[in-house]
Structures are given as C-alpha cells and as structure tokens.
Amino acid sequence: MKKTLSGIILGIVYVFLYAPLLVMVFFSFNSDRSTSVFAGFSLKWYGELFSRSDTLIALRNTLILAVLSSVIATLIGTIAAVGIYRTKNRLLGNTLMTVTNIPMMNPDIVTGVSLMLLFVFFGRLLGASTSLNFGTLLIAHVTFNIPYVLLNVLPKLKQTDKRVFEAALDLGCTPTQAFFKVVLPAISSGIVSGMLMAFTLSLDDFVISYYTSGADFQTLPLKIFAMTKKTVKPDMYALSSLIFVTILVLMIITNLLQLKGDKSNEKGR
C-alpha cells in the first residue's frame, strides 16, 4: 500500500514537472498560433525561428556567455577544490566551504543587486563610460557557477586514493606531473559534470543577468522577458523546445559520465 501511494505521488510530481514542457514541445509543431487548438503538424515556427536575425543573435550571445563562463568557472573551481582538499586545517577547510556555499544559498536577486552595485561603484571609480557590459555579465556568471563546480569536483577528489599519487611520486614524477597523470584523470568525470552544470545554469539565468548586463549585450532570457510585455511569438516555443532537448542530452551525458566514473573507482578499489 505504501509503495503504491508513493508511486502515485511520484507520478503526480513528474506530471507537474514535465507536463508544461511536453505541452510546449507539442505546440511548437502547431501550424497555428493557438496554444489551445492543434491545427496540424508543421515546422513553420522552426523555419521562422532561423529566419529571425535578432533571435539568433540573442541565442549566439547566450551560448558565448555560457561557454566562456562555464570554462572559466571550471578552471577556477577545480583549482579551488584542489586547494580546499589539500588544506590540512579542518577549521579552515570548513570555513572555505561555508563561504563557497553562500552564493548558492543567496536568492538570485540579492546576488544580482549586490554585483550590480559593485560593478557600478568600480565603474564610476575608474571613470568608465558605462559600468555594465559583457565583462560584468561574464564575471557575474563565473561567480555563481564556481560553487557548483566545487560541489562536483571535491567529492571526486575525496574518492581518489592518495596512495596512487604517492606511488607516482616514488616512481619519479614531480607533484605537478603526478597531478596531471594520476589525479586529473580520476576526477575528470567530476570536472565535466561541473562544467556541464555551469553551462546549463548560465544558459537559463535571468535574474542575475538582468542586473549585471549592459544595453549592448542581450541574452535569450532577457529577450524573452522583453517579449512578454507584448506577446511571445510561437517561434519561441520552437527555440525553447530545442534548448530543452539540448539540456536533456547534456544531463544524460553527465549522468553517464558519473556512472562511468563510479564504476572505474569501484574497479580501482
């Protein structure tokens, strides 16, 4: 009885989570603008999507920002994870982790407003013509992505066998060589997972981007928000469907990499 009840509740949860997405994908193939009546199957809105330069520019900006911020956040987050892992002082390590987790616990609006004030302050201090631009937006995205990279890399570091690293040193490797030949391959699945998570978070961020972007650089979430003041055209359903499928594929790849990493760690033991 309990299993049946839990299954029903789980099914209801999944319906609430995925029904809107499935409806959006379904009506992206609608030949009519209606979101209540399916007039017939058509790729009309996908064709219109790729014929609109302003939408493609916003998509390009979003992808550029997501790729750059995820790569930079992965580099910084991996280095920070190694530093925290090698910290011998437990109190210092716990303090660093607590400080790292603060950006994740903060509401996005608090992070966005605080970063905006910081950028405006330094912009006026340096006498810049504009305080907010692509650079400030990139810094903001890197800032909120780093903790998520840490959360993916640090557990992998804790799972690595220290004796393998020490054996590499005994066999003539320098600490740097031992890290790249032994430790880095062992934590590679965590690094990739962290980078993919950072990419997806940067791809759909709106609140922080709204407060830290300039007028010369518009991402897709900002463009869609501007469209809601008038009307959202059906080609946005098509674009959102493509993004949903892309994120779904990335998440499947992430889970497969994590599963592969866990299996390799079990074999190593």
Written description of the protein model:
- The chain is mainly alpha-helical and 269 residues long.
- The chain has helices at 2-27, 44-49, 53-85, 90-105, 108-125, 134-159, 162-170, 175-186, 188-203, 207-212, 220-227, 235-268.
- The protein is globular and about 70 Å long.
- The mean pLDDT is 84.
Which features would summarize this protein structure in a list?
about 270 residues; mainly alpha; 12 helices; about 0% strand; globular
- Tally of DSSP β-strands: 0
Average pLDDT metric: 84
Biggest sheet, open or closed, and with what strands and sense? none
End-to-end distance: 40 Å
Number of helices: 12
Query: Radius of gyration from the CA trace?
Result: 23 Å
Order of helices and strands: HHHHHHHHHHHH
SS content category:
mainly alpha
Globular, elongated, flat, extended or rod-shaped: what is the shape? globular
User: Which percent band covers the strand fraction?
Assistant: under 5%
Secondary structure: helix percent: over 70%
Task: Give a short synopsis of this structure.
The protein is mainly alpha-helical. Helices cover 78% and strands 0% of the residues. It is built from twelve helices and no strands.
Q: How is the secondary structure organized here?
A:
Blueprint: H1 2-27, H2 44-49, H3 53-85, H4 90-105, H5 108-125, H6 134-159, H7 162-170, H8 175-186, H9 188-203, H10 207-212, H11 220-227, H12 235-268
Helix pairs in contact: 1-12, 3-6, 3-9, 4-6, 6-9, 7-8, 9-12
